[in-house]
């Protein structure tokens, strides 16, 4: 789909070919800090209240849509929402185009390749990451209150030619069709983890935690079996599900949380997965941004207990995560929307011509019996989707 759209079609949310692609900027809002969710909410209400909307399709994602990417942390980090001038949507065989104001014409140009890709250490190298994991394990074994902490590191990629995001997005969508391929305000990736989807008064989440990856020619079935019976991975998963379910339950009058996780198989990794479903309570249920504010960060990207884990992350990583591991997605004027966690992703530094610089991130949940070497290998496996998409691996 992307290669049939203009070069400026760099805003998207796609899974199995369905979703939204946008370009141009009819409006944007930048914010930061602990009130970023509430601030975006107030701006979006205000913005949509002033619009005259002619919507003939009326399904989630028609009418005005804001794409948003929020910082992981309260401090530092910038968050933003962008309303494209043109949005092409597709949902269960229904297709539509939404335009806001004067749209102009964007020529469709062929997708450009990024040339050769060179890698260098980011702010936290793989060796530094290993040290951070060792320290987290040491503290947990010495009786820290933190029972799980998600630590990450970054990697810099430099492309010899200016990066055409459609190249990376097209590759990610083709190779990871069961993930949500996203691009919002320079952050792009393919995430397997749905933080929250709101459709009317239904809310859903796909919680992931507990990971294995192909190695030593072990079959995919054996890897899945090992993952399901691994006490360490089940514990990591349990913390993530509990944190989401606890913070979401206050908004729901009905909720279903599976007793047992299933295994989500991707080409680079396998994850323990739990699909949580809830029905929102009351005649005027909470907004999606309000719920996101309450659930973020779950123990899939933060840890348990949350405040202590978040403090440990900033101490041991010592880098700004930016929007990595923050919520990313879209919302419409009726309150529907989908937000994933910005994982398997990269932040692109814009360049008109010449090399582009891209910052990739990956992290892992650490518990007291984590093996630092294994966690480094797991993070490398999680970096593969974006690396291979930059390199054009088919
Ligand atoms: C933190 C990441 O992934 C998260 C951590 C996981 C784990 O530790 O097993 C699994 C899926 C995600 O919830 C990442 O991809 O960077």
UniProtKB/TrEMBL annotation:
<keyword id="KW-0413">Isomerase</keyword>
<dbReference type="InterPro" id="IPR004561">
    <property type="entry name" value="IsoChor_synthase"/>
</dbReference>
<feature type="domain" description="Chorismate-utilising enzyme C-terminal">
    <location>
        <begin position="127"/>
        <end position="382"/>
    </location>
</feature>
<protein>
    <recommendedName>
        <fullName>isochorismate synthase</fullName>
        <ecNumber>5.4.4.2</ecNumber>
    </recommendedName>
</protein>
<dbReference type="GO" id="GO:0008909">
    <property type="term" value="F:isochorismate synthase activity"/>
</dbReference>
<comment type="similarity">
    <text>Belongs to the isochorismate synthase family.</text>
</comment>
<dbReference type="Pfam" id="PF00425">
    <property type="entry name" value="Chorismate_bind"/>
</dbReference>
<dbReference type="InterPro" id="IPR005801">
    <property type="entry name" value="ADC_synthase"/>
</dbReference>
<dbReference type="InterPro" id="IPR015890">
    <property type="entry name" value="Chorismate_C"/>
</dbReference>
């Amino acid at each position: 789909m992307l290669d049939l759209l203009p070069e400026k079609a760099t805003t998207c949310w796609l899974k199995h070919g369905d979703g939204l692609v946008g370009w141009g900027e009819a409006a944007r809002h930048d914010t930061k800090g602990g009130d970023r969710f509430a601030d975006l909410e107030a701006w979006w209400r205000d913005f949509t209240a002033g619009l005259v909307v002619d919507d003939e399709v009326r399904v989630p994602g028609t009418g005005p849509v804001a794409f948003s990417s929020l910082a992981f942390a309260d401090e530092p980090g910038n968050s933003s929402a962008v309303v494209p001038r043109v949005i092409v949507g597709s949902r269960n065989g229904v297709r539509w185009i939404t335009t806001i104001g004067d749209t102009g014409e964007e020529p469709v140009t062929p997708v450009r390749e990024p040339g050769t890709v060179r890698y260098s250490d980011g702010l936290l190298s793989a060796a530094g990451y290993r040290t951070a994991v060792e320290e987290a394990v040491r503290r947990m074994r010495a009786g820290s209150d933190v029972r799980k902490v998600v630590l990450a590191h970054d990697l810099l990629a430099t492309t010899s030619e200016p990066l055409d995001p459609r190249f990376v997005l097209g590759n990610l969508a083709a190779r990871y069709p069961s993930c949500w391929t996203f691009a919002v305000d320079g952050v792009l990736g393919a995430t397997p983890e749905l933080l929250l989807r709101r459709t009317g008064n239904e809310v859903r989440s796909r919680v992931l935690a507990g990971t294995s990856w192909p190695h030593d020619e072990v079959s995919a079935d054996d890897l899945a079996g090992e993952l399901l019976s691994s006490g360490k991975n089940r514990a990591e998963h349990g913390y993530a599900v509990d944190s989401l379910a606890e913070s979401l339950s206050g908004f729901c009058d009905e909720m279903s949380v599976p007793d047992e996780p299933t295994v989500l198989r991707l080409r680079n990794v396998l994850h323990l997965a739990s699909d949580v479903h809830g029905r929102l309570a009351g005649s005027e249920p909470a907004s999606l941004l309000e719920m996101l504010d309450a659930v973020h960060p779950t123990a899939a990207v933060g840890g348990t207990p949350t405040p202590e884990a978040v403090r440990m992350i900033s101490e041991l990583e010592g880098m700004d995560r930016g929007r990595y591991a923050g919520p990313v997605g879209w919302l419409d004027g009726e309150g529907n929307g989908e937000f994933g966690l910005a994982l398997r992703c990269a932040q692109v530094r814009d360049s008109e011509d010449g090399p582009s610089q891209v910052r990739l991130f990956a992290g892992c949940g650490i518990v007291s019996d984590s093996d630092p070497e294994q966690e480094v290998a797991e993070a490398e496996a999680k970096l593969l989707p974006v690396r291979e998409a930059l390199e054009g691996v088919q």
